[in-house]
Specification:
- InterPro entries: Clr2 (IPR038986), Clr2_N (IPR031915), Tscrpt-silencing_Clr2_C (IPR018839).
- The protein is an alpha+beta fold.
- It has 4 domains: 142 residues, no CATH class; 255 residues, no CATH class; 68 residues, no CATH class; 264 residues, no CATH class.
- It contains 15 helices and 21 strands.
- The protein is elongated and about 125 Å long.
- It starts with 15 loop residues before the first strand and ends in a 32-residue tail after the last helix.
Length: 834
């Protein structure tokens, strides 16, 4: 059936008209096929202009006006009607189909933003926009054409959807009468047995527990950072043979090939350039087997002993003999050279940690000797090539070294997350001073209401509890004095949330939690005789004593041989967090601290015992290679050594009076790490040694960050670029202890204070650190060059003032500019912070 247009609509009596003061209408939008033409098939397809007073227009004007009045909050009572269409609008009746009975579709046309409005609900939000936005900002219109939303959603949001009619609960009266008239016949036909069964049925009623829906497993709220997991896994995970030790953004030294010759030869040559890691790249290459059938192997490309890295990261097997090639994996880093706009890829075995190298004194003095006039201060134009000279590179290298020194002075914790730990309930004896007071007027064995009131009073005291520790926790009394109520004991175990950090920028290095770092402290500085929860330093092994006796012609008993106390200390960082600390002036400051287990280096064949619960160091730990086993009680009583805390919380008291710390530890291990994180094994110790924990199980050290010396790089002393340094250090006599200890400290063979990172300035992100370091280095170096030029000119002026005039043509005339004076042979030293 063809659709017809509405008819019979007239204007209501005494209407209140609504007018449009602005319009987005444009007559150019009107249709052009407005003439009725019957085609060869007897069909028509044209747009008929509908007058404003025709029934179709009146219907739209009344419905739109009523809705606009409701949206505009006009007074209830009058009948609101559109006086006319917005300027440039026109109503059309689209006639399409057979000429005798065409289909009719009403369209309101004229808007510049909408081709046509096909219904009243489509036009209402657009009309409301025309009335309320005199500037006609299209983004304020909520119609489907301007807002790009479904019409049903717009209509529902404006309350224009008609309510659905509900099905009547009872039938109409006529139907009821018809059913009532048939009821006697149905009753006569119903059998007696059916009627009897209906009379015996009873309604069902019961009481049951409310059914609970299945509790969905809670998804992870915080994850281990992707870079955190990738860096640790590529360095410490088991089964990896080509390890990636350096992280994006770290400051390293890159070897230059070839090196830039110095003014005096190799002693002052520039062999390393400070760089920043931009990315690491793993490359796989297939190499055909040599004719002899021997496989070519990859040379070690990291501090660890990986000189024979297998192909594809897996051990070779018998089937590989049939494969005519070997897959070699190589690791390289894209390095950004500091001071100059230049980046390039370099093999992993050609980079060193920042703390593993420092410019030599000869190199610094050579930079001093470069004349200022010959120095290329346009550092952006320099590129290290095989044709680069020392004079060309001096300014760029000095700038790069200064940028690196500045960058090593910044630090920042990164990637915060929520750490949860539990505080065990205090015992009766530790909280007896905070028992709830007895309620006046109550008798022994009071009512339930009295017990509830006392409990409410006790719970109100919990408002003062903080996450710093349990010292402020009140405890509900197990019983009260005579005349007070009796109350059952209440166990209060709190789970406290603390903001922690997954990582740390520490000077030149990127440090993550769950990895081992070097501390500045010597082992002899941490409980040298042992203390509660800290074992004494391990002595030398039996073989070390025997070897010393063999070398000692005097027959010394070996007691002078030192053990772990002369070496460094390591910490496996389990947590990083910030605490409030009081200052001398009375104000409060903040300090970042690290928590974790401490380790010492013992001889590989040392046969002592690991620390146990309740260790107090009475045995001294310095036996002839064997220590006496320490009896471990089931529980721990009392407090801890200052700076050492149980793993329940930093700064909190340990479990006491029979509360096992191991239980609290197992519970906290599920709360104290980001979800989806996994522990990593300890890195390999230096050759000939092994790691030994020095704290009793269930305890951890809490240290300020300024006690961290830097990262630990396993087997770094075997790096090919350090061979000459190690050989030189082995030949140095004992009088040069500091020079050699700087190298041994990289692996913990000497205390960390010999080779340490000391950042003091905090910045929020690494990019800001690099930018500020670069800016300050350039400004400082430019100021130094200007000061050096002024000193040169002043010195030359003094020389001209005191020298007698010379008749030679090469002498400097009085009117000659001092900027062209000869270069002073011994200029003032340039200060370069290495």
């Amino acid at each position: 059936m063809a659709r017809s247009i509405s008819s019979g609509h007239v204007l209501p009596p005494n209407p209140t008209f609504i007018d449009f003061s602005v319009s987005d209408g444009d007559q150019s939008q009107w249709p052009t096929n407005t003439t009725r033409v019957v085609d060869s098939e007897g069909h028509v397809n044209y747009m008929r202009s509908v007058p404003i007073d025709e029934s179709l227009s009146i219907k739209w004007r009344c419905e739109v006006g009523a809705s606009l009045a409701l949206q505009l909050g006009k007074p209830v009572g009058p009948t609101y009607v559109l006086r006319g269409w917005p300027v440039g609008y026109q109503m059309y009746d689209h006639n399409k189909g057979p000429a005798n009975s065409p289909r009719h579709d009403a369209y309101l046309i004229g808007s510049r933003y909408a081709k046509r409005f096909r219904s009243v609900p489509e036009f209402i939000p657009h009309a409301l926009w025309l009335l309320t936005d005199p500037k006609l900002i299209r983004s304020n219109c909520s119609c489907k054409y301007c807002n790009r939303k479904p019409q049903r959603e717009i209509t529902a949001s404006m309350g224009l959807l008609a309510s659905k009619r509900s099905t009547p609960l009872s039938a109409p009266p006529g139907t009821q009468r018809a059913i009532a008239g048939k009821a006697p016949a149905a009753a006569l036909s119903m059998s007696v047995s059916t009627r009897t069964a209906r009379e015996r049925s009873k309604p069902y009623a019961a009481i049951r527990r409310v059914p609970r829906p299945v509790k969905q497993a809670q998804g992870p709220k915080q994850n281990m950072l992707r870079e955190h997991n990738a860096d640790l896994r590529s360095a410490y995970a088991e089964g990896i043979h080509l390890r990636k030790w350096y992280r994006d953004g770290e400051l390293l030294w890159c070897a230059l090939h070839p090196s830039i010759p110095g003014l005096s030869g190799e002693k002052d040559a520039i062999t390393f350039w400070p760089c920043i890691v931009e990315e690491a790249r793993m490359k796989a290459e297939a190499i055909r087997h040599p004719a002899s059938g021997e496989h070519a192997h990859l040379t070690g490309a990291n501090p660890d002993d990986n000189s024979n890295a297998p192909q594809n990261g897996k051990e070779s097997n018998v089937d590989d003999k049939d494969v005519p090639w070997t897959v070699i994996q190589t690791l390289s880093y894209k390095m950004k050279l500091l001071g100059i706009p230049y980046s390039y890829y370099i093999p992993a075995d050609q980079v060193l940690p920042y703390q593993a190298h420092a410019p030599s004194d000869e190199l610094i003095q050579a930079i001093h000797r470069v004349p200022l006039e010959k120095m290329n201060t346009d550092t952006d134009s320099f590129r290290p090539t095989d044709k680069s000279t020392f004079v060309d590179a001096a300014a760029a290298y000095a700038l790069a070294v200064q940028i690196a020194a500045n960058l090593a002075g910044y630090w920042a914790p990164t990637d915060d997350w929520e750490y949860k730990f539990s505080i065990p309930p205090p015992t009766h004896s530790s909280a007896s001073g905070m028992l709830p007071r007895a309620i006046p007027g109550t008798q022994h064995g009071g009512s339930l209401d009295s017990v509830m009131n006392a409990s409410m009073t006790f719970n109100a005291n919990l408002a003062n509890v903080t996450s710093v520790g349990p010292s402020n926790l009140p405890s509900f009394a197990a019983h009260v004095q005579s005349g007070s109520i009796s109350a059952p004991p209440i166990a209060l175990t709190q789970t406290v949330t603390q903001t922690r950090y997954q990582g740390l920028w520490w000077g030149a290095e990127r440090i993550w939690t769950d990895e081992l770092v070097r501390l500045k402290l010597s082992r002899s500085q941490i409980a040298p005789k042992g203390a509660r929860n800290i074992v004494p330093p391990a002595g030398p092994s039996r073989k070390a004593l025997e070897y010393t006796k063999m070398l000692d012609a005097a027959g010394d008993d070996g007691e002078t041989v030192v053990g772990a106390e002369s070496r460094g200390v390591f910490m496996r960082i389990d947590g990083l967090y910030v605490v409030d600390i009081p200052r001398p002036d009375g104000t409060a400051g903040k300090e970042c601290r690290a928590t974790g287990m401490l380790y010492e280096l013992v001889d590989e064949d040392w046969e002592g015992d690991l620390p146990g619960e309740g260790t107090n160091g009475d045995d001294g730990g310095k036996g002839k290679g064997k220590g006496k086993a320490v009896e471990v009680p089931a529980t721990v009583d009392g407090g801890t050594q200052e700076g050492i805390s149980p793993t329940t919380a930093p700064g909190s008291a340990p479990a006491t009076n029979g509360v096992s710390i191991s239980k609290g530890r197992s519970a906290n291990e599920q709360l104290s790490h980001p979800i989806l994180s996994s522990p990593f094994p300890l890195p390999p110790p230096p050759e000939g040694f092994k790691f030994r924990p020095i704290l009793t199980p269930g305890h951890e050290a809490v240290l300020s960050l300024n006690l961290i010396a830097g990262r630990y790089y396993p087997r770094l002393l075997r790096h090919p670029l350090l061979d000459s340094y190690v050989e030189k250090a082995l030949n140095i006599e004992g009088g040069h202890l500091v020079e050699t200890s700087q190298l041994w400290a990289l692996e913990g063979l000497a205390p960390g204070y010999y080779n340490t990172m000391d950042p003091v300035r905090w910045r929020a992100c690494r990019v800001t650190m690099v930018r500020e370091a670069d800016k300050e280095a350039r400004q400082g170096l430019e100021e130094h060059w200007r000061a050096r030029a002024r000193e040169r000119d002043e010195k030359k002026a003094l020389e001209l003032a005191y020298l007698s005039p010379q008749p030679t043509s090469s002498s400097v005339q009085v009117g000659e500019s001092v900027s062209h004076a000869p270069v002073v042979q011994q200029p003032e030293a340039m200060v370069v912070d290495s």
